[in-house]
Prior knowledge:
alpha/beta, 5-stranded mixed beta sheet, 10 helices
Amino acid sequence: xxxxxxRQTSDAIGSAASxxxxxxxxxxxxxxxxxxxxxxxxxxxxxxxxxxxVSRGGLxxxxxxxxxxxxxxxxxxxxxxxxxxxxxxxxxxxxxGGQLWWMWVFSSPQVRVYAIQPGRGFAQAAAVLGVNFEGxxxxxxxxxxxxxxxxxxxxxxxxxxRRCRERMQWGGAGAQFPRTVQKVLQQALQLRxxxxxxxxxxxGLAVAQGRLQARLDRALEPRYRSLENQRLANHLPKxxxxxxxxxxxxxxxxxxxxAEQAIRPMVVTRKV
Length: 272
């Protein structure tokens, strides 16, 4: 008979009898995944601080076992994000075995779900969010997000304003178009503030929004000589129905700041 106390993580014997407890594994996971320490430095911390000797390979396999046990929790988070009324997605490059993959994040006021996937297409986004997502999708201008046909879209105004500012720095006659777009977007944000402060009626809001939309449509009519201006002019009609959604939906964000903040710690880990 071979006894196995409750705190024993394995019934291995002989040279494999050396084991790490739950707290040590939890600390290793936090050091490696949360703080970005490599396996070697994580092992060094465990040995220097607690006298626990473990190899890099041992840590790797231990964290893989933890991931298997956490899979049901992860899937529950995925279901939670799919049922959220508002989701803000974003993605950034990620290296896996020397190859370019993508780190995705899907953020709501209650939940964040991360996924490292081999592509940046609709299939990868839908693998987490679901093909039939019907909530509000607050996203940047990446065309993949527009393929969620059942969602209600809000494009990120901060991205559009940034493009306008960058184009205006060049000066010259070509700065007039981005300046017009910038003013329209800024006035839309001011209109939102007036609504939240109770300084405009529902009818007044609709009239003002219609005027902003008409002004933007007129700015998109000409053909522009500048390549950058024409690119912006080609992009805005694709986002036309998603620019002012936040004006009709109190509480809806006008930018994808939630996903930008959620993905920032992962960018730090990537650099480390």
